[in-house]
Amino acid sequence: MADTQIRLERELRTKLTRFLSGTSGVRAAHRQALFEVFDRIKSNKWEAVLFGGTLRDLMLYGPGHSPRDIDIVISNVDADQIAASFMDCSSRRTRFGGLHLEYRGWLVDVWSLHDTWAIKNSGKFRADFDDLPRTTFLNVEAVIADLVPSRGKSRNIRDSGFFDAISQRLLDINYEENPFPTLCVVRSLITAARLRFSISRKLCKYLLHHAERVSPEELVDVQIKHYGTCTRKAEEFQFWLHAIASDYRSGSQAIRLPVAPEDQLHLFEEWLPAW
């Protein structure tokens, strides 16, 4: 697994560099707006990392793919400093004190490292970038990469099971404690469907436990509030959960959602092994 991780780290570093350098297939004008956000962070000389789903999507879909949104975490600044730097941009404060930017077609969440929920509330993590990957709910988001690498050095990448998740195509819980379990259910189901990853028994148990407390219609409402759109209907959530319950009772160790091939996104599969 060590050799696999080294190879995947190198591949992620290459894809991220291509994305940030403008050699990917994203339209230059659209990409330039994102670079302007990055430049503000760089001009403040803030230490910042790209986090979570941004890197997952670059890894799986390639540098030509335009991520749905960008997550940036900044060290040694507070929320007011971040807000002051982006005061001319369309923005709102998130429930955790971060800033949600809508800037020329890009959605960017920027927040202070010490405001990360698990760091601030659990008492289990230090407010440093080494611990940050350990705070995500899902393993496929447990990764960070330096926004600006140190001069003369490779871009630093840190993970907490992310590369294992990619190589095994397995969705699992990275850190279970979370203030919004229903949102975790929705995000886990949608992520498993779009990535075509199996779901671990641990995560299946979590999904079934928390889904018992809400209706499929409530899952749709949570989806709309989080993603801003409705891509999955109540009947689909219900169908998926019934399928998970059946496979879980049968003792399956890794459970896959019944998703039609035409309803899945195409992965950047140059390195992924065949099933």
Question: Which secondary structure elements does this structure contain, and how are they paired or packed?
Answer:
Elements (H helix, E strand, L loop, with lengths): L1 H20 L6 H16 L3 E5 L1 H9 L8 E6 L3 H7 L4 E4 L5 E5 L2 E7 L4 H5 L21 E4 L10 E3 L2 H7 L1 E2 L9 H15 L2 E3 H11 L4 H12 L6 H16 L4 E2 L20
Parallel strand pairs: 2-5, 8-9
Antiparallel strand pairs: 1-2, 1-6, 3-4, 4-5, 6-7, 9-10
Helix pairs in contact: 7-8, 7-9, 8-10, 9-10
What does this structure look like?
With 275 residues, this protein is of the alpha+beta class. It folds into two domains: 2-168, Beta Polymerase, domain 2 (2-Layer Sandwich); 180-263, no CATH class. It contains ten helices and ten strands. The chain has helices spanning 2-21, 28-43, 53-61, 79-85, 117-121, 162-168, 181-195, 201-211, 216-227, 234-249, and strands spanning 47-51, 70-75, 90-93, 99-103, 106-112, 143-146, 157-159, 170-171, 198-200, 254-255. The protein has a seven-stranded mixed beta sheet with strand order 3-4-5-2-1-6-7. It has a three-stranded mixed beta sheet with strand order 8-9-10. A hairpin with a 2-residue loop joins strand 4 and strand 5. Helix 7 (181-195) packs across helix 9. It is globular. 34% of the residues are buried. Mean pLDDT is 89; it is low at 265-275.
